[in-house]
Amino acid sequence: MTIDRFENEDDKQRYLDWRKRNPNGFVLNINTWNPKLTMYKNIIHRASGCSSLDTPPNINRDRPVTHEHPKLCSTDLNELVAEMENKDLPYKTCDLCKPKVN
Question: Domain residue spans in the chain?
Answer without folding.
Answer: 4-93
